[in-house]
Amino acid sequence: MFRHTALRLARPARTAPFVTHAPRRTLFSRRAARSSRPVENLNLQRLSQQSEEYHRNRRIFLWCGAIAGVVSFIYTAYKLKVELSKPAKFDTNLAPSDPLAGASAADRKVVVYDEEGDEIVPTGNSTVPTFPRRINLPSFTAPLSTTSTSEAATSPGITSPSDTTEYTLVGLGSRTVTFINLQVYVVGFYVATADIATLQNALTKKVNHMATTLVPNEREQLRSALLDPAEGEKTWDELLAAGIPARSAFRVVPVRDTDFHHLRDGFVRAIQGRAAALSGKRGQPGAAEDEAFGEAMRQFRAVFNRGSVPKRREMLLVRDETGRLSISYDAGASKKEQRPAGRQLIGVVEDERVSRALWLNYLAGKKVASEAARKSIVEGLMEFVERPVGTVASQVVPVVNAKV
């Protein structure tokens, strides 16, 4: 009886077979089934789309940052330029009625003196740094038709060197071209000192017929009229047609090497663009389409049939009391750029409409050759009309807003 029991105990125990049971799937067992087999649930297309979206967003973010940086840099530079261009304002003990304490006092250019004691006005240009405040130009006693430099220099139309007229600078600025404002030349407007009173009186009477000087609000009215394209062109056309100012000149000094043909093309385009709007004078047609005007333009073009014009060389366009245009050029070396010693007459154009149209190209209109020069000239004229008629010639005439 114990024997069978012992045998049963001595027998090796049977091991249960390894059976794998699949989990029962229910409504809530789908997530567990997915998490138990992550490799089988990879979606390569979805991963590729996520990667592309990530890099696309990253590129957009970087481009936005770069654009924002450039815009902020440009904006900061612009604001800095605006602030630096503003005139410095200092405390002053001057009375409010003092001209130097006015709102425009900080904009006035100070006339300085060079080593020889001559008055000069800074231009702000490094190539042509200064313009003379006053220049002495010879007077012409007879019409000239020659265009040769040698013939013009020996012609009886030029008086002796002692017979000269003093001209005073009213305003100056630079002629720029293209959208990058490439500077071509610096131009200054001069009026015969003896004729300033006549110009001053004409401008004053335009605003107030009873006044001999203009108060601030009247000066502002005159400034607005001269800067207005239509009104300014009409005003200057009437003044020049009436011979006011009687004698004036434009001084042109290139800031880079150029040639006469390039200057001629610019002048001719300016004259042709203004000729149709000129008012009549002495029976001449206002449209300037007659043969006499065409012949005058041919004479004007012939004056510029020359070679190169190096930088810093002076060209003078002078208009006398009859409206005749005289063109002189300094082709020689000069130790003192603001007062060249080698001026020579190269041509004369008799028809006053040529000089009037050329003057309007700088003084008024919708588009002028130099906006900086036009504004500077207007501000210089404001200095005239704020003083009694006839007292300006003996006083310092500041050049205002001469930005180049």
What brief labels describe this structure?
404 residues; alpha+beta; 7-stranded antiparallel sheet; 3-stranded antiparallel sheet; 11 helices; 12 strands; disordered C terminus; isomerase; transmembrane helix; intramolecular lyase activity; Chalcone_isomerase_3-sand; membrane
Task: Please give a structural write-up.
- It is a single chain.
- The chain is an alpha+beta fold and 404 residues long.
- Helices cover 39% and strands 17% of the residues.
- It is built from eleven helices and twelve strands.
- The chain has helices spanning 2-10, 30-36, 44-85, 149-154, 196-207, 216-227, 229-241, 260-275, 291-303, 352-363, 371-385, and strands at 112-113, 119-122, 130-132, 134-138, 164-177, 182-192, 248-254, 258-259, 308-309, 315-319, 325-330, 343-349.
- Strands 4-5-6-7-10-11-12 form a seven-stranded antiparallel β-sheet.
- Strand 1 and strand 2 form a beta hairpin.
- It is elongated.
- It starts with a helix and ends in a 19-residue tail after the last helix.
Can you lay out the helices and strands and say which pair or pack?
Blueprint: H1 2-10, H2 30-36, H3 44-85, E1 112-113, E2 119-122, E3 130-132, E4 134-138, H4 149-154, E5 164-177, E6 182-192, H5 196-207, H6 216-227, H7 229-241, E7 248-254, E8 258-259, H8 260-275, H9 291-303, E9 308-309, E10 315-319, E11 325-330, E12 343-349, H10 352-363, H11 371-385
Antiparallel strand pairs: 1-2, 2-3, 4-5, 5-6, 6-7, 7-10, 8-9, 10-11, 11-12
Helix pairs in contact: 5-6, 6-7, 6-11, 7-10, 8-10
